[in-house]
Amino acid sequence: MLASQADPVPDRIPLQEVFMRMAEELAKRSTCARNQVGSVITTADLTQVLGIGFNGNARGLPNRCDSSEPGRCGCIHSEANALIKAGAQTPGKVMFVTCSPCVMCAKMVVNSNVERVYYRQAYRDPAGVEVLRRGGVEAEQYDRWRDHWRG
Fold first, then answer.
1. Are 106 and 80 in contact (CB under 8 A)?
2. Distance CA 99, CA 9 (A)
3. Which of 29, 55, 89, 138 is deepest in the core (most CB within 10 A)?
4. What digits encode the pLDDT tens for the residues 106-127?
5. Predicted TM-score (pTM) above 0.85
6. Residue 81: exposed, middle, or buried by beta-carbon count in 10 A (0-12, 13-18, 19+)?
């Protein structure tokens, strides 16, 4: 969501932007050669981080893609890594992800009691966002304060 000229700049950085930037920093740990993605999952009130993730190979395997063929790199997606850590039982979770989820990740998000997903940029295939919405998960492209509080 882009800030309009009418939106006043808050006195301090909103928590949504803090967690989105945290997801961007986590993406830098990704070992995927094609698309580095980071995720953060919080409680509904944004007071606790429940899980973090970035895309990469499974623990104990080489820190590189299994293949350079698109769609076959073998990396576990950041959303899956974060959901594993956050657990499925806590209701109303909020997810921050640097790129909108693919269809399979969106299905995992729906089944993991995530209530809302904020994403920074759209994935090449918008079908994942549609799966989120059909599954009752609010999805919002979040770019409101990207350029503020930098420095």
1. no
2. 25
3. 55
4. 999 999 999 999 999 999 999 9
5. yes
6. buried
